[in-house]
TrEMBL record:
A Gene Ontology molecular function term of the record: DNA binding
Name of this chain's protein: Transcriptional regulator
One Pfam family hit: HTH_11
Protein's organism: Domibacillus aminovorans
Keyword field: DNA-binding
Length: 221
C-alpha cells in the first residue's frame, strides 16, 4: 500500500512539473532544457525526461539553435495541440456561431457585428485606461484588463521609449482562425483606446508565428 502511495505521489509531482514547464513555455516562449531547469530548480536531465514525455503527447516540439561553442541547443516550444490546455473561450461554440452568422447575415453582416463588438470593447477599455493617464499607465491598465480575459498580457518598455504589448495566449484563437475580422478589429481597437498620438503596429501574430501576438506602440513625435 505504501509503495502505491509513493508511486502516486511521484506521479503527482511529475504531473505538476510538466504543467509548470508548459506554463513557462507559454509565458516565456522557446527555452532550452537548462533554462527550464534553472527556473524549476531541478537537473537538466530531469527536465529533458519531462520534455520527451510532453513531446510524446505532441504538446511540445523543438528547433535546434546554433551556439558559438558546442552542439546546437534544442529550443523547446509549445505545439498548437497545447492550446487546449489553456482557456479557449468556448471555442467550439464560438466557431459554430460564426459559421451560422455568415450563413444568416453574409460577410457584410458579420463585419457589422464585429464593429459593434469592437466599439463596446473600446468603451470598456477606455473606462479602465482613460485618456488622461500617461501612456505607460494606460498600457498597464490595458494589459491587466486583457489578462483578466485570458490573454496573458504584459507590457515591456524599450530603450527608445516605445513599448510592446505582448499577449501570450488567445482565448478566442479558434474563432480568429475562421474569422480574420477578429484580429483586424483588435488592432483597430487598440489604436482607438490609446489615441491618435500613438502608433500601434502588430509585429508578431499568433496565427502565423504560433507563439504570441506582439504590438509595437510608440508616441508620434
Amino acid at each position: 500500500m505504501k509503495k502505491k502511495d509513493t508511486n502516486a505521489s511521484k506521479e503527482g509531482i511529475a504531473t505538476r512539473t510538466r504543467r509548470t514547464i508548459i506554463k513557462l513555455l507559454k509565458q516565456e516562449g522557446p527555452l532550452d532544457a537548462l533554462q527550464l531547469a534553472k527556473q524549476l530548480g531541478v537537473s537538466g536531465m530531469a527536465v529533458r525526461q519531462h520534455l520527451y514525455n510532453l513531446q510524446a503527447q505532441q504538446l511540445v516540439t523543438f528547433e535546434e539553435e546554433p551556439r558559438s561553442m558546442g552542439r546546437p541547443a534544442k529550443m523547446w516550444r509549445l505545439t498548437s495541440e497545447a492550446n487546449r490546455l489553456f482557456p479557449d473561450g468556448h471555442a467550439d461554440l464560438i466557431v459554430s456561431l460564426i459559421e451560422s452568422m455568415k450563413e444568416a447575415f453574409d460577410e457584410d453582416g458579420l463585419e457589422k457585428l464585429l464593429e459593434i463588438r469592437n466599439q463596446k470593447q473600446v468603451i470598456q477599455y477606455k473606462n479602465k485606461a482613460p485618456s488622461n493617464l500617461p501612456l505607460n499607465e494606460k498600457l498597464k491598465a490595458l494589459a491587466e484588463s486583457r489578462t483578466s480575459e485570458g490573454y496573458m498580457a504584459e507590457i515591456t518598455e524599450n530603450k527608445d521609449g516605445s513599448f510592446c504589448l505582448v499577449e501570450k495566449h488567445c482565448p478566442i484563437c479558434e474563432a480568429a482562425k475562421v474569422c480574420s475580422g477578429f484580429c483586424n478589429k483588435e488592432l483597430e481597437m487598440f489604436q482607438q483606446v490609446l489615441g491618435e498620438d500613438v502608433e500601434v503596429k502588430r509585429t508578431a501574430h499568433m496565427l502565423t508565428s504560433g507563439n504570441r501576438c506582439v504590438y509595437s506602440i510608440k508616441r508620434i513625435k
